[in-house]
Request: fold
Amino acid sequence: MPSDPELQLRGRLVRRLGALREMLPGSFVERRRSCGKPQCRCADGEHLHAQYQLSVRSEGKLKTYNVPAEQAAEVRRRVDLHRRFQQTAARIAHLNLRRWLRLRKTGKPAQ
Reply:
């Protein structure tokens, strides 16, 4: 096993990425709105219905998908996985940059 702590950290981070394979890109949005029916409980403007959406930028355009209420918690969790993926990938890239800068400066690879 390599003795370099940064290399060990990078290995742990890369292994952690496998747990994120169910991720979804975009933003999870919860809105409250009235349905428009005059006799509905939401007509008073206080007891509004929840509406869940997944907003994703695809090919330069924002697409919004309605999420059924029974899938809302799962979709929210999977969007959060994507955020964690981005954070982990950024940490790996930063570690790689530090290692490369050290190599460039010393002319020797980190062990």
